[in-house]
Amino acid sequence: MGSAVAEAAVSAGLQLVPASFTCPEKSGNVVHISGTDVQLHGPSDRVGILKSILDEYPGVVVADYTIPAAVNENAELYCKVGVPFVMGTTGGDRQKLMDTVKDANNYAVIAPQMGKQVVAFQAAMEILAEQFPGAFAGYSLQVMESHQAGKLDTSGTAKAIISCFQKLGVSFSVDQIQMIRDPVKQVEMVGVPEEHLGGHAFHMYHLTSPDNTVSFEFQHNVCGRSIYAQGTIDAAFFLVKKMQSKADKRLYNMIDVLREGNMR
Fold first, then answer.
1. Angle, nearest 10°, between helix axes 2-11 and 226-244?
2. Residue 203 and residue 115: Cα distance in Å, rounded?
3. CA separation, residue 52 to residues 7, 80, 83, 105, 133 (Å)
4. Residue 31 pairs with which residues in a beta bridge?
5. For this structure, is 151 an active site residue?
6. pLDDT tens for each residue of 70-113
7. Cα(155)–Cα(150) distance, rounded to whole angstroms?
8. When you count CB atoms within 10 A of the terminal residue's CB, does the N or C end of the chain come out lower?
9. Is 149 helix (H, G, I), strand (E, B) or coil?
10. In angstroms, rounded to a whole number, what is the distance separating the alpha carbons of residues 228 and 112?
11. Quick check: 145 and 176 in contact, CB under 8 A?
């Protein structure tokens, strides 16, 4: 995902900082992205390295796509150094994440979903839940989500949509989500094209009335990563504008970015 964001940044005319953080095993490696040799740094002396990057590139915005276990530690690092960041990584302690950013008064866009059109659907669901609470009381819900095998946690987008259904009166818990990570099932049962097994996000929400005579189905299926990369770059542009205007609000999500109305 990081490479996709880097390529999208270059395509948008942004300067790609030739440095990134990685795991200890890959520390010292160099990756070539869109004409830039990016040096990979391990966990040691991350504070010093990030401070030096900020000194050399004062307008830098960090894009974070790592793993759930790194979410909170990474946010603490960015806030300690004072670097604005866009975080698309899901998982971690989300309340602690938000509190860390608020306490540091650091500029950030944090969202479990960076795809603009999917975020628009999510926003529509939130409006529906807010204006028509209990509209689906008594309905049963089935949720299935399929992602590449490397995604370790449950879809953050699915969790957000489920919270809307809960406000609409549906009784459903996150642990009832059917997670599909087996490539064979993804092809045969979900219908994921084989060429996108390494990067996809398929979601299905099926509602059924108490007497089984009425059903509703919502789906959003994404192949590849470009939709998230483009959304991440839009979020970075948005964040820079907020910093330049010295906006009092510092913590944003992708719905805030959508509402700004200047998406590319």
1. 60
2. 13
3. 23, 13, 11, 21, 50
4. 38
5. yes
6. 999 999 999 999 999 999 998 899 999 999 999 999 999 999 88
7. 12
8. C
9. coil
10. 10
11. no
H or E element that contains 7: helix 2-11
Marked catalytic residue, from 80, 96, 116, 151:
151
- Both tokens of residue 155? 């879809």
Q: What is the predicted pLDDT for the residue at 234?
A: 95
pLDDT in tens, 102-153: 999 999 999 988 999 999 999 999 999 999 999 999 999 999 999 999 888 8
> What pTM value is reported for the model?
0.82
DSSP state of 109: E
Based on C-alpha coordinates, what's the Rg of the chain?
A: 20
Q: DSSP letter string over 207-235?
A: EE-TTSS-EEEEEEEEESSHHHHHHHHHH
Residues in the chain: 264
Compute the distance between CA of residue 130 and CA of residue 181 in angstroms, rounded to an integer.
Answer: 33
Buried b (16+ CB within 10 A) or exposed e, 212-230: eeeeeeeebebeebebbbb
The SS3 call for residue 249 is: coil
Tokens of 22: 């990685």
Q: At what angle do helices 116-131 and 156-167 cross, to 10 degrees?
A: 20
Tokens 């807010």 — which residue?
Answer: 130
| Amino acid of residue 18 | P
Residue type, 125: M
